[in-house]
Amino acid sequence: MDPGEVSDELFDQLVDEAVAQLPSGIGDFMDNVALFIEDDSPPDGPTLLGVYDGIPLTERGGTSLSFVPPDTITLFKNPLIDYAEDADHLREEILVTIVHEIAHHYGIEEERLHELGWG
């Protein structure tokens, strides 16, 4: 797909639809996690569809996280659009990317995500 074919409004709608389709229970332990959309992934690294930034639940232990900024999941709009074949495929890839980044919040590593089909 061409990024010019997908307006910001349509992309936001597809993100909302993907969030509504998240598997049941996936958000049960997602306090203090914010979802952002950026046009492009950082230019100094590989092209990414999304990224999780935060402290995975598996690394938090019993420590208090008061005054800690929220964990973030960032979707990269243009790489997602470039990767998608059409609007339905874009919606699916947005969902896969959100689930993938949420899994990182839960402490699931890249290799295991690929084994599970969420790579």
Automatic annotation (TrEMBL):
This protein's source sits in the domain of life called: Bacteria
Q: Matching Gene3D superfamilies, A to Z?
A: 3.30.2010.20
Q: Sorted alphabetically, which CDD domains does this protein's record hold?
A: MMP_ACEL2062 (cd12952)
Task: Give the signal peptide as a residue range, or say none if absent.
Answer: none
Q: What is this protein called?
A: Metallopeptidase family protein
Look up and give the organism this protein is from: Brevibacterium senegalense
The root-end lineage is: Bacteria, Bacillati, Actinomycetota, Actinomycetes, Micrococcales
